[in-house]
Predict the 3D structure of the following.
Amino acid sequence: MNVFDWLPIRFGSRGKALSLYKRGLARAKTHDREGAIDDYTTTIDMPGTPSDLRAMALYNRALAHAAAGDNPRGLDDLGTVLAMDDSPANVKTLAKQKLARMESRSRKSKV
């Protein structure tokens, strides 16, 4: 691949969204939850973001919200992933599992 093939990939909508998504992952790894949420939100809202990347950003934003103690927003994001028709199957499976765990914890805390 020469540089002219690489440029559209790197600076196209998928490349920009992927770069932001990866930065969000790096921020989440260092426990910068607000920074990660901001990067995931920008990725989600960016025009031209591919649906698979949007679903992954939504899922990871849900995890960041839950880690920050904002379960309602996390649940909303997981619901959005599950409602997406073009969300990858593996992301939907992870979202279903996380949603079930969060709902189970919520029920236990109410008892």
